[in-house]
C-alpha cells in the first residue's frame, strides 16, 4: 500500500479505456474502484468535507483494526488497478478540521493508492484551516 500526502504522484502505465468523466469526489471513488479505466475528474474545486461525511467516517472506523496503532486511516482510497486518473484542472481542498473528526488519532493519509499500475495526474490540492476555506 502506498500512502500519498497532499501531492498525488503518477505510479505506472495508464490504461487505454474510454474516458469516464466524473463531477464529484464520491463519483471518483466509485469509478476508480474498478480496473483498467480512464477517468477524468471535471475541472473545478472539490471540498473533501463533501465526501467525508459522518457516515463515511463511520465506514472507515469499521474497517480499522483497533489493536494496530500504526494502521493507516485513509480518507480516500484508490482501490482499482490499471487506471488512468486525470484530475488536471481540478483542485481538491482538504479542511484540516476533518482530522479531528477522524475515528482515531495517529497515522492519517488523505489519499491512499492500494491498487497497482495506476497513473494519477493532479494539477492542485491544498489544505486549509477551518476559518480559511477559500
How would you sum up this structure, described in words?
This protein is α/β, with parallel strands linked by helices and 134 residues long. It has helices spanning 25-32, 48-51, 54-63, 97-101; strands at residues 2-4, 19-22, 38-41, 44-47, 73-78, 84-95, 108-113, 119-128. The chain has one domain. The strands form two sheets. Strands 2, 3, 4, 6 and 8 form a five-stranded parallel beta sheet that branches. A three-stranded mixed beta sheet has the order 1-7-5.
Uncertain runs with pLDDT below 50, 5 residues or more? Answer: 1-15
- In helices, the fraction of residues equals 10-25%
Rg, alpha carbons: 14 Å
Number of strands: 8
**Computed structural class:** alpha/beta
What is the helix tally? 4
Biggest pleated-sheet summary: 5 strands, parallel
Distance between the termini: 32 Å
Beta-sheet strand percentage? Answer: 35-45%
Query: Quick check: average pLDDT?
Result: 81
Domains (count): 1
Shape: globular
N-to-C series of helices and strands: EEHEEHHEEHEE
